[in-house]
Write a structure and sequence with these properties.
35% of the residues lie in helices and 29% in strands. The protein is α/β, with parallel strands linked by helices. It is elongated. The structure holds adenosine-5'-triphosphate. Keywords: Antibiotic resistance, ATP-binding, Nucleotide-binding, Transport.
């Protein structure tokens, strides 16, 4: 099983630096979400990993070795600009890409049939690609990236334009691949989705890694302890407790930051003394909040 290391890569266009010493890993069996603002260099990074673009500086290694063209053949890539042939039949197209990546015809056909079924496209196998909706074309693109059973999967915005059901389907396929030990790296703007899907995260800003690591440790690292309390009457008194910062107050419900857990417990004790408590708990920060903090 392989590990992808990206180390200190830099790349500029016409004198403007886009990547400026970016480093991160994509580990076997883990789904790594790659997030950053528009134009932050996600596509550029992926293109460098795939050898479609050269880095000005830095290295990318796979299993500790520089990546050769032969090794790249065993990677799967779903580019942002989707590259399907509109006049080709769906199944033929996937088989064709399988063969391009070195599969024999029988294996390419077998893998294609399995993927079409998995992505719920079996009935469309003989349709021309151009006859498919954009969402279905995207599913075909996922098949193309997977047909040769890649050792590493890199997907640029694989979920954009998919409806919720299609998202679940594609997500299931990616999880399967990860479960077999493949590192899966994907970029996305849909933070809730990244949050739900990823094991690890890389947040890029200013051409560098602004934050990276597994989801849970990122959450605890980047946020102060936040709590929610719902009482029976008015919760306004929480504002007067020292050390507490009220984030949101709406009648009986209050969300607050406390400097530590003991303080939060004191707020709870106060609440109980004042009357019934309907709910109390820690609020898990969303990725969107972490994102705002680091970018
Ligand atoms: N071939 C190129 N020539 C000139 N500039 C480029 C080229 N490729 C990328 N850029 C510039 O590099 C910057 C980063 O682009 P990139 O597509 O990598 O960002 P991104 O994070 O993928 O953005 P988005 O989320 O909008 O897709 C942009 O300002 C873009 O205009």
């Amino acid at each position: 099983m392989g590990m992808l290391h990206v180390r200190e890569i830099s790349r500029g266009f016409h004198g403007t630096k886009v990547l400026d010493g970016l480093s991160f890993d994509a580990a076997p069996g883990r789904i790594t979400g790659f997030v950053g603002a528009n134009g932050s260099g996600k596509t550029t990074t992926m293109r460098i990993i795939l050898g479609l673009l050269a880095a000005d500086r830095g290295t990318v290694t796979w299993q500790g070795e520089p990546i050769t063209q032969q090794v790249r053949q065993r990677f799967g890539y779903m580019p942002e600009e989707r590259g399907l042939y509109p006049k080709m039949k769906v199944a033929d197209q996937i088989i064709y890409f399988g063969q391009l990546h070195g599969l024999d015809l029988a294996t390419a056909k077998r893998n294609t049939a399995a993927l079409l079924e998995r992505l719920e496209l079996t009935g469309r196998a003989d349709d021309l690609v151009e006859r498919l909706s954009l969402g279905n074309q995207q599913r075909v693109q996922v098949c193309v990236a997977l047909v040769h059973e890649p050792e590493l999967l890199i997907l640029d915005e694989p979920f954009s334009g998919l409806d919720p059901l299609a998202i679940e389907t594609v997500l299931g396929v990616l999880r399967d691949r990860a479960a077999r030990g493949v590192p899966v790296l994907f970029s996305s703007h849909q933070l809730e989705l990244v949050e739900r899907l990823c094991d690890d995260l890389v947040i890029i800003s200013g051409g560098r890694t602004a934050a990276s690591g597994d989801r849970e440790s990122l959450r605890s690292r980047f946020t102060t302890p936040r709590f929610e309390l719902v009482v029976d009457g008015d919760a306004g008194w929480v504002r007067d407790m020292s050390g507490v910062t009220v984030i949101d107050l709406d009648g009986a419900r209050v969300v607050f930051d406390a400097t530590d857990n003991e303080l939060a417990q004191r707020v709870l004790t106060q609440a109980v003394e004042r009357g019934p408590v309907r709910a109390f708990g820690a609020v898990v920060p969303s990725l969107a909040e972490i994102f705002r903090e680091v970018i």
